[in-house]
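note to self — DONT lose this again. spent like an hour looking for the file last time. sequence + predicted structure for the chain T wanted, 161 res
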Amino acid sequence: MLVFLDTEFTDFVQPGLISIALVAEDGREFYAERTDYRQGDCTDFVRSAVLPLLGRVPGAACTAGQLTARVRQWFEALPEQATLVYDAERDWLLLAQAWLGGGHQGPPANVGGRLYLDSRMTAQALFEQAQQSVYCKAWPVHHALADARALRAGYFACQAR
């Protein structure tokens, strides 16, 4: 099962995870927002474009420790092995940090491969059009859940061609 991943984070130098979204090919979704990230580490862009979008999903707020438990439980509940799909290596690294919290030594058992979508796919007009069709006022770009949904839409638009 493909699982599309997106994150929002404090900055590019020492990124601290703010929010994370996972959208499975069958439509299952996971979304969480960290309450214990360091706001002082956020760039001006993050303060203006990302932080105002938080709080849209009831029950999403959690600490880093709670996030580890939640994300591991979500993966463990999937009916088959997951292949992670992402378009930024940093997203993968932040997810790995999240599931390794609490002394865990590896990913959840049913996490399998990874599929990195580079610019050869994401820059295609069809991919971009499908992504843009997902965004709306309620779910704009730079909200991790909207971005993961858009990544899924772009991927499947290209695969259908």
